Amino acid sequence: MSEAKQNKIVEKNTAVIVGIGDYVDKSKEDGLNLQELLAKASSLAIQDSGIKDLNYHIDYVGVVRFSVDFLTASNQSNFQYSNFPRTLGNKLGISAKEEVYAPMGGNSPQVLLDDALTKISAGEVDCALLSGGEALQTMIARLKSGLSLDWLDEPGGNPEMIGNNSIGFSEHEKLHGMDLPTNVYPLFANALRGQENKTAKTHLKESSELFSEFSKVAASNPLSWFPTYRSSREISEVTPENRMIGFPYTKYLNSIIRVNMSSAFILMSQKKADELSIPISKRIYVHGCSILDDIWNVTERPNFHSSPAINKCVNQTLDKAEISLSDIKYFDLYSCFPSAVQIAKKELNIPQEKKDLTVTGGLPYFGGPGNSYTMFSTTEMVRRLRNDPKSFGLLTANSWFITKHAAVIMSSKPSGPYEKIKNSVEQKKINQKAITNFTENPEGNGKIDTYTVINGRKGPEFALIIGTLENGWRFVANSEKDNFLLEKMMKEEMLEAKVSVSKKEGKNIFNLI
């Protein structure tokens, strides 16, 4: 085969996004079940393509893993779908040869996207439907009301499971409360301000100003779960409606997962798009997609204010797109908590004053539907790029605790054939930087490297610190429930504070000295 002919075939297998759909259901007990919810968004994506019988052309159905379908979920037993891609396909009249279920994590949509792009580019798939979402508001409301969840479906078959489905924390980290994002991201916040030599008050002000701009975008987005503008003062001020969660983060600085939201988009080969006469104005190309992890256990990272993985992901996608960061017009930096955005900004050298970093409004305001948030940032990015031809958009993803990452660059400008970025070598380089001086059994005196105070609805409950002993060993520890100590830790500077640590009833417990 001649090189020219081969290039022509490869070009025809270039993948394009041709249809998008999003659906929001604000009902409670009487809301849609998961298959109904995702079918709504998927139908809208098919409709957006302009091809009425597109369901007959779809040969790949990929679904983002639901947050309740993971062994750490407290209500996992209520997830009753054995092959959701087929359940969704049956609902839409689709018979797909490829049924794919993505892993746990905020970068799950990009794992799915990368898989579909690779298979389309290889000529194995012509047309793919990707969908994701959550019905947690309805699920939790029904369970609290004592209502049954008759959401069972057994369509037969087994989906192809892709991606890394490992738990994002060690047993030792879990023992000390480092299994919840609300407890861990504040650790990054205090480490970040320490590295920048800022006070907690200054850092909270900057975080609130940043997320106030996010809420402004959410306020004008008709799909937002909370379409309300919040001033920086409103975000930072502790009130009954905006209680402290994990110091220094108030409720308005936390992602909201209890939503009913679904999103979907259609990918197909250039050849199939030509066959179906999809208008050029609808076609959006993926110019690069990179997936990479930071050091898996937070306690083993060299520091708590950087992310080599997101740095590498974004720069790899820029290289694939043959552009620089200055060529990016639209951004959506994953925004579960301010520290996720701030660390990404620092890694990418985005100026402090730049605030237009979301196209949706962000996870605390637009909504954070589990692993599926970046399905929505993708569909919204497609809208922006369709309306602004030849411009470029960058979106990032983040999972667990600034652990699993992804970056995607898109444009209406045609791209070359998709080339999967194989990151095994880069991953090994990152993993090799894990520290080896962490101990699960600290004893003696040391100092606080970063910290947070975990608050419940009735006030502060315990403090969580990561510190270094005088002999150089790193440790994690909790406080006892001492209201005086906990209030003191939220009012006074605790970075570098001297502590003693010892084991008590199986846990590491610290005291200020």
DSSP helical segment count? 15
Euclidean distance between termini CA atoms: 76 Å
Number of domains as seen in the coordinates? 2
Spatial arrangement of strands, main beta sheet = 5-3-2-4-8-1-9-12-11-10
Q: Give the total of beta strands.
A: 17
Q: What would CATH call the class of the largest domain? A: Alpha Beta
What can be said about the biggest beta sheet? 10 strands, mixed
**Helix share bin:** 25-40%
CATH topology of the largest domain: Peroxisomal Thiolase, Chain A, domain 1
- In one word, what is the shape? globular
Oligomer: single chain
Strand content: 15-25%
Q: Which stretches are low in confidence, meaning pLDDT under 50 for 5 or more residues running?
A: 1-10
How does this model look, in words?
With 513 residues, the chain is of the alpha+beta class. It folds into two domains: 11-169 and 256-431, Peroxisomal Thiolase, Chain A, domain 1; 444-512, OB fold (Dihydrolipoamide Acetyltransferase, E2P), CATH 2.40.50. Helix content is 32%, strand content 23%. It contains 15 helices and 17 strands. The chain has helices at 3-12, 34-49, 84-92, 108-121, 136-144, 171-175, 181-195, 200-219, 232-236, 270-275, 308-321, 338-348, 373-387, 424-431, 483-491, and strands at residues 15-24, 60-63, 98-101, 127-135, 160-161, 244-246, 249-250, 260-269, 284-293, 328-332, 392-399, 404-411, 444-456, 459-469, 474-478, 498-504, 507-512. The strands form three sheets. Strands 5-3-2-4-8-1-9-12-11-10 form a ten-stranded mixed β-sheet, sandwiched between helices. Helix 2 crosses helix 3 and helix 7 (181-195) crosses helix 12 (338-348). The termini are far apart. 53% of the residues are buried.
